[in-house]
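tokens incoming
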């Protein structure tokens, strides 16, 4: 299979979504001049061009795209060519209403926006395949082509009749019989037993709580149907392209609708769109989390498909990025494994829903601060690209995350709506990030043997295979830390006997889990070392010398808030941020995991990529950092020894 290296060819790709159909043709030559001035070597074309390419059913207008592909190639700019299927033209919905998705109340989602397609519609798939076939046949061998980009941000749900029919087919394939389906969904509850497949529907609007098993399977089904759409188009473009041209589609970070682990297995290049809020004091940590997860899905270098050069247009208040922040966050992505740094979009639109979403070329033009900062970044990426591209960034710690567990845990009938899986994932990653500890992400079933420490912020539903994997990891000498509500249910969201899998209880040293005690927003659980929020539990530890109640909760009659059984730890609350950082850093040290660099100031992030050391100052004030040995800063060529000073939002890339 081809990979990102086939597109980068020893460089870092730099550019963004280019939508020239929004502009008169004379602007294109000006765009190319500015791209060359900024060091742009890659643009993504055609993402939203379906109505331009196929103005009427069956017609094709490729002339404008021919001229663009040739123009870009003549100027040394590669093309990531998109299939335009994320935004069907109005005529498709007008002529074929069955291609339009329906919400869970049965209302049609009309054209006029984007992503208005039913993933289950045979007609939509036929038209999508036809335009993809002709696009690939025409440009699959074009010398400008470096990569295919399928669709865009797959994110469409559909509760309509075509989706219902496909849902039944999907369930038949998975379960075989109605008896197996009824068992998995627990339909003995509330008289929900199904006597024929025709009775089975997507989980549409209901009078009261929906069946959790039905909701869980519908989420799995949605991810699978969207993946079928991706694979169909991927296979078409592969047939028409040289073997070295990779294929991708862009993830949205931590989007609940895709099992991104499963999707990544079908991609040549894993790419993501990333938009931290410039006003968020933890925006850099959010970026680091997404970057760590994307790199782990890619198992190596990955592509930052979209970010904003300035403000976005979809927050309540859309703040610009202060001077230097775009460069800082872009180089942070490179530090954490990105071999492509791209934006939405190249030139800021003058019309349409995203005219106030920033572009690399803003409304202010080439004299504006945004473009001047883009030029600086482009020059720096050109300078360091051949020394960075292809190098790996690895961690000694794995954070476990599973979409199926997240889906199961988010049912509306859960114990506390204040317990949110992304919130917990963020809290635990933040604690490790602030302790300057490098992390990867993994599924509970992945091979964990290469990690010294595995942490599970929460994995509510675990398969038997996953539990066996965790047991084997600890028996093999690994250190495991589990957060609360882990191992409660199986893959069908069936609560395990005892409220937690018996094997997991034995591993963690829990004899009996008496009660879950969710906490209100203003409640805390007091221990002899810290306060916990969101959750607490009434548990009895196993009476064994190896089991230690590390911290005890005074509110629960001295019962353990943190339990240790050899190399296995259980945390039955969410410690306040500083306490969680201290706890995890201490456990990591005991497992032999060291910070990337000792003695770092809090606002400085250190990341190793191969033998390169990236130092990033997320603070607004300059700061001095002690760095043992002699190095050269690849960004400036300056040699440093012993100490380096980082300006506000400053970055150095040190090579020994």
């Amino acid at each position: 299979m081809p990979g990102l290296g086939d597109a980068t060819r020893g460089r870092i790709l730099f550019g963004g979504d280019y939508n020239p159909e929004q502009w008169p043709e004379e602007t294109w030559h000006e765009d190319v001049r500015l791209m060359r001035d900024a060091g742009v070597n890659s643009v993504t074309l055609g993402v939203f061009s379906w109505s331009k390419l196929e103005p009427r059913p069956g017609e094709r207008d490729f002339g404008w795209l021919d001229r663009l592909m040739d123009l870009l190639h003549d100027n040394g700019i590669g093309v990531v060519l998109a299939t335009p299927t994320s935004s069907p033209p109005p005529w498709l919905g007008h002529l074929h209403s069955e291609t339009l998705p329906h919400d869970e109340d049965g209302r049609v989602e009309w054209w006029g926006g984007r992503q208005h397609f039913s993933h289950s519609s045979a007609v939509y798939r036929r038209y999508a395949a036809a335009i993809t076939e002709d696009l690939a046949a025409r440009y699959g061998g074009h010398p400008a082509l470096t990569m295919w980009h399928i669709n865009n941000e797959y994110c469409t749900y559909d509760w309509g009749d075509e989706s219902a029919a496909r849902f039944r087919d999907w369930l038949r394939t998975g379960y075989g019989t109605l008896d197996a389906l009824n068992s998995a969904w627990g339909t003995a509850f509330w008289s929900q037993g199904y006597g024929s497949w025709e009775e089975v529907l997507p989980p549409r609007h209901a009078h009261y709580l929906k069946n959790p098993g039905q909701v869980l399977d519908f989420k799995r089904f949605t991810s699978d149907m969207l993946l079928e759409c991706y694979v169909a188009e991927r296979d078409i473009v592969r047939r028409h392209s040289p073997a070295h041209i990779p294929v991708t589609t862009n993830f949205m970070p931590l989007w609940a609708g895709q099992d991104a682990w499963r999707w990544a297995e079908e991609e040549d290049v894993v790419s993501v769109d990333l938009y931290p809020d410039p006003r968020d004091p933890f925006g850099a940590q959010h970026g680091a989390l997404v970057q760590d997860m994307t790199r782990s899905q890619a198992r190596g270098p990955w592509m930052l498909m979209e970010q904003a050069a300035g403000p976005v247009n979809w927050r309540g208040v859309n703040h610009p990025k202060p001077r230097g922040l775009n460069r800082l966050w872009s180089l942070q992505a490179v530090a954490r494994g990105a071999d492509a740094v791209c934006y939405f979009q190249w030139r800021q639109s003058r019309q349409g829903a995203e005219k106030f979403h920033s572009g690399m070329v803003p409304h202010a033009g080439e004299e504006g601060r945004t473009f001047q900062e883009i030029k600086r970044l482009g020059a720096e990426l050109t300078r360091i690209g051949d020394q960075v591209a292809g190098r790996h960034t690895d961690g000694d710690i794995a954070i476990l995350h599973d979409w199926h567990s997240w889906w199961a845990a988010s049912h509306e009938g859960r114990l506390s709506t204040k317990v949110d899986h992304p919130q917990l994932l963020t809290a635990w990653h933040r604690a490790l990030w602030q302790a300057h500890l490098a992390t990867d992400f993994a599924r509970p079933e992945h091979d964990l043997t290469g990690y010294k420490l595995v942490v599970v912020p929460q994995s509510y539903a675990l398969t038997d295979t996953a539990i066996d994997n965790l047991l084997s990891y600890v028996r093999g000498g690994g250190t495991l830390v589990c957060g609360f509500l882990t191992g409660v249910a199986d893959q069908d969201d069936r609560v395990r006997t005892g409220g937690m899998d018996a094997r997991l209880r034995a591993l963690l040293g829990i004899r009996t889990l008496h009660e879950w005690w969710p906490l209100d927003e203003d409640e805390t659980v007091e221990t002899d070392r810290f306060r916990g929020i969101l959750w607490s539990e009434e548990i009895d530890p196993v009476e064994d010398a190896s089991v230690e109640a590390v911290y005890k909760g005074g509110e629960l009659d001295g019962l353990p808030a943190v339990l240790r059984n050899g190399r296995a730890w259980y945390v039955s609350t969410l410690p306040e941020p500083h306490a969680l950082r201290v706890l995890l850093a201490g456990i990591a040290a005991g497992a032999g995991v060291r910070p990337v660099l000792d003695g770092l100031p809090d606002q400085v992030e250190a990341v190793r990529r191969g033998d390169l050391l990236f130092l990033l100052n997320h603070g607004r004030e300059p700061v001095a950092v002690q760095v043992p040995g002699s190095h050269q800063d690849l960004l400036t060529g300056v040699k440093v020894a012993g100490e380096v000073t980082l300006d506000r939002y400053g970055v150095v890339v040190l090579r020994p």
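note: The mean pLDDT is 96.
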